[in-house]
Write a structure and sequence with these properties.
Blueprint: H1 2-31, E1 33-38, E2 50-51, E3 61-65, E4 78-83, E5 92-102, E6 105-116, E7 120-127, E8 133-140, E9 144-152, E10 170-179, E11 189-201
Antiparallel strand pairs: 1-11, 2-5, 3-4, 4-11, 5-10, 6-9, 6-11, 7-8, 7-10
């Protein structure tokens, strides 16, 4: 009898501990939403959107690919970048045909990227709500195969509206591939970008606990 009473008491204590945390998690998720920003299924990106600040005869090849797609996604197409062996190891910017406008508060990006141990860094360009431009590191491409990368943004850049009642938006404008090793290459570099996701919340519809749960 005594043992049964102890077990019941422990069960009640466990309920008191777990129910509040479960409720807090549920309330948090109510304010957060992950959405697909780009899946590269209908967009067309070519070398016309490439910017290189140097004279070179060996431009990267940029096209849409149905061969290099992430096995972790339901995907038919990715953005493929091939840098030839003769490439001179200089940074290249790829400007998207139209900026991706993010109207709500951006918590993080998620990128799915393929690399064949490319000696380069992968950056994105973001324009904040006050028109300041930011270059943010996404990944070091010194790996082989597919990987996903989550890039927290939160309060790292200005997301406040310039004027109360007049919404200001973030813009994802492009990417940069910046070689980290200038030595002679022995292979072509292959980089593919599959689905891009963002996690966001409304700017002003906030939980009672404030913003701490988002950072």
């Amino acid at each position: 009898m005594q043992t049964s009473r102890i077990i019941r008491t422990l069960f009640i204590l466990i309920l008191f501990i777990t129910i509040p945390s479960f409720t807090e998690e549920k309330n948090e998720k109510k304010y957060i939403q992950q959405v697909l920003l780009e899946n590269f299924e209908s967009i067309k990106i070519t070398n016309n959107f490439l910017r290189i600040q140097a004279n070179t005869n060996y431009l990267p090849e940029i096209r849409m690919s149905k061969q290099f797609v992430s096995p972790n996604l339901i995907s038919d197409t990715s953005l493929l970048i091939i840098i030839p062996i003769e490439g001179e190891g200089i940074p290249m910017d790829l400007i998207f045909p139209k900026p991706y406008i993010i109207e709500e508060y951006l918590i993080e990006f998620e990128f799915h990227i393929y690399s064949n141990q490319t000696n380069a860094d992968f950056f994105i360009y973001i324009q904040d709500t006050h028109f300041q431009k930011h270059q943010i590191l996404v990944a070091h491409l010194n790996f082989d195969g597919w990987k996903s990368f989550k890039i927290p943004i939160g309060n790292k850049i200005n997301q406040r509206d310039s004027i109360i009642g007049k919404p200001s938006f973030l813009k994802l404008t492009g990417i940069q591939i910046n070689p980290t090793v200038k030595e002679r290459k022995t292979k072509e570099d292959i980089i593919a970008i599959d689905d891009i996701f963002i996690t966001k919340r409304k700017k002003y519809d906030l939980p009672q606990d404030g913003l701490d749960i988002f950072h």
